Fold:
Amino acid sequence: MTFLQLICRAVCLMWLMAAVTPERTHAQGAEFGFHGGQATEKYERGGGGSVIVSLPTGIRTVHVGARATYHLAKTGDDGEKSLLLYGVDAGVTLVSSPILVRAMIGVGRAQDSEKSMNLEDDTRTDITRTTNTFYAQPGVFVGTSLGIAFVGIEGRYINLDKGVSTTAVYAMVGFKVGR
Structure:
């Protein structure tokens, strides 16, 4: 079993547990979140933001919205590599008190950019190659709610259709608006 299959099965199991386990639901509202962290493979530190709408379903609170993340260029012997992700996120709250635990999945477009340098004779040529692809990003958020604010840690697996897939860990802070 590959790491991706293991992550996907874990997220599916959490969704199933959320569907059959009753939990106190919260009123509808919006959340604005900001995240920053580190990827483990070819990419450097990254950060971004999200806008999420919370929808109480009677059993669990479901979250849907948009998310964007940019990982800065990582410089190595073979050039620089950066990653831009933008798409939709969906999740479900598994535990809401005293800690906050959410299972989530993001899907969308990814832009994997690679810049390299070629030296021949006394001529320097910069070559930039950008690959547009799709991504799937299962993950888990563990944090705490502080009134209208929330803070926590988020683990994600960034599975690129074309390019180098990686895991990432982000610190997250945000606030809630609405009832």
User: Anything to note?
Assistant: The chain has one domain: 3-178. The beta strands are 29-39, 45-56, 61-76, 79-95, 100-120, 123-146, 149-160, 166-178.
